Amino acid sequence: MKKDKLIAYDLGTGGIKASLFDAEGISHAEIFNQYETYFPKEKFCEQRPIDWWTNVCAATKKLLAHSQCLPEEIACVSLSGHSLVAVPLDKDGKLLLKQVPIWCDMRADDQIQKFFHDLPYDKWYSATGNGDPEECYTILKLMWMKEHQPAIFAEISKILGSKDYVNYRLTGRICTDPSYASGFGVFNLKKWEYEPDFFKAAGISQDIFPEILPSDSIIGYVTSEAALESGLAKGTPVACGGVDNTCMALGARGMEEGVIYTSLGSSSWIAVTSQTPVIDVSTRPFVFAHAKKGYYTSAVSIFSAGNSFRWIRDNLCRDLKNDVAAYDIMNQMAASVPPGANGVLFNPSLAGGSAQEPSPNLNGGFMGLTLGNTREDMVRASMEGVAMALRQALDILLKQVNVQNEMLICGGGSKSALWRQIFADIYHMPVLKTNIDQDAASLGAAALAANAVGLWQGYNKILTIHKQEELSLPDETRSTYYEKLLHIYSLWTDTLAKLGDKMKEI
Fold first, then answer.
1. Which pLDDT tens digit goes with each residue over 434-467?
2. Domains 5-246 and 306-395+482-505 share a fold
3. Which residues in 255-279 are b (16+ Cβ under 10 Å) and which e?
4. What phi, psi does 272 have (nearest 5°)?
5. Is the pLDDT confidence value at 397 over 90?
6. Domain 5-246 in this protein, CATH class
7. Across the chain, how many H-helices and E-strands are there?
8. Looking at residues 335-344, what average pLDDT do you find?
9. Looking at the domain covering 306-395+482-505, what would its CATH class be?
10. Which of 190, 224, 362, 443 has its CA 20 to 30 A from that of 19?
11. Given this model, what pLDDT does residue 440 score?
């Protein structure tokens, strides 16, 4: 039987998407399974690794049944996984915690001072590119565990990331890849390996971290036990896979210098591929190793984009909350309002400020409201506000790397033609939507699998898979107007951040 199909898993914060690809990189079917995130205490953000595994298994069975693909046709499987996770295993390979901290868990803030007591922050950041809040990174989470859960910590034999735990359940092999390792807080981007000094600063043994293998290498084969649970055939090759940011960059055509994309989802980021990591201590872009050695994906972000637009729906448009066409109606509202939303500005920082923004205490808000403004104005302002926040982030990258003059946009928000045009006008650059849309991370993972088993030789095929659906060109008149608004937006954002700091004090 011809083995010419691939399964790519996109292990995200909200759930797992399993996609079936052919050897040409075309997606034929996909299944999404949701799982829970738990918030047991303030700053805690946890998930259950067993939920990842059981939902991978369930999604695989559904995918094979829905597509009528036989397990024996699968040439390779590969995962894209959410980052900065700490899954502790004992010497027998068993989970030590039912729930583990994921990327947004920030409980380790007290460990920051200890970590940087003898290790200069600038040295650490310049080597790792870990520009998100320091307490999010795996090494800090382990320092917290060592202090607050000493009995658990003492039993740790290995630490794994999200997709690496699923790989372990599939194959029995404990390992990671450079892209995921670069989010552990102990990976030197230039050396492309772990940095011993950072383990020493943390007081954590390097031995508990997994070996690093190439993203597109075969790490093992589906075991008999995993085959029974997942529905995959015993002996199916498993590629090492990559962290979600890198898989998405790869799937978003990011194989060459200066290729840039915007991911417009619940949160949002802009990432660029380059042969030099974009490092800046003042603005702190976050960087991951690329699937291709010698390349990096450097990104800037805002914490709330689609989430803020959803908040607008749920609070300002409550009459639409249960309407399946709610976002279409909101787009029509926004389209009825001129650029600038009749003097209303919106800051989307409803989840606080990112590392690229003036303060973590930055909160959202409207400015310029008068008795003459309408709900339609506020809906339009919310779309423009997300784009303005991301334009400020984009400017950080533009100062340090020459980007190609075309912005690919992907994620749920890319479905809106109006929003894409707003982005084109505010970015002052063409904005491209292709057929890949929300499947960039899945395509990236599939490409790793295809290379692992020799179906592909390199990644250039990704360029032919993308088909242009719409190119939104900036309107010079609107772009000039938005530049003036951006100046006001920037001043206002700085003031909001200062006020947020004062509110935090009281």
1. 999 889 999 999 999 999 999 999 999 999 999 9
2. yes
3. beebbbbbbbbbbbbbbbbbeebbb
4. -130, 145
5. yes
6. alpha beta
7. 17, 24
8. 98
9. alpha beta
10. 224
11. 94
Stretch 93-106: mean pLDDT: 95
The residues pairing with 78 across neighbouring beta strands, listed in sequence order, are 8
Predicted confidence (pLDDT) per residue in 181-212, tens digit: 999 999 999 999 999 999 999 999 999 999 99
Which amino acid appears at position 315 of this protein?
N
CA 381/CA 347 separation, integer angstroms: 9
Please name the residue that has the structure tokens 């995962």: 79
Residue 10 pairs in a beta bridge with 17, 80
For residue 268, the cross-strand partners are 264, 302
DSSP per residue, 203-234:
T--GGGSPEE--TTSEEEE--HHHHHHH-PPT
User: Of 87, 89, 273, nearest to 180 (Cα)?
Assistant: 87
> Does 253-304+403-472 carry CATH code 3.30.420.40?
yes
What average pLDDT does this structure show over 73-86?
Answer: 97
Q: Can you give the pLDDT at residue 267?
A: 87
Contact 137, 185 (CB under 8 A): yes
Q: Distance between CA 289 and CA 243 in Å, rounded?
A: 9
Domain extents in the chain: 5-246, 253-304+403-472, 306-395+482-505
Q: Percent of the chain scored above 70 by pLDDT?
A: 100
User: From the centroid of its chain, how far is CA 451?
Assistant: 23
Residue 485, both tokens = 């608004």
3-state secondary structure 155-210: CCCEEECHHHHHHHHHHCCCEECHHHHCCCCCEECCCCEECHHHHHHHCCCHHHCC
Torsion of CA 249, 383, 305, 52, to 10 degrees: -70
Question: What's the sign of the alpha-carbon dihedral 166, 290, 132, 437?
Answer: negative
The per-residue pLDDT for range 234-249, each reduced to its tens digit, is: 999 999 999 999 999 9
Pairing mode of beta strands 242-243, 211-212: unpaired
Residues, the chain: 506
Query: How far is 279 from 277, CA to CA, in rounded Å?
Result: 6
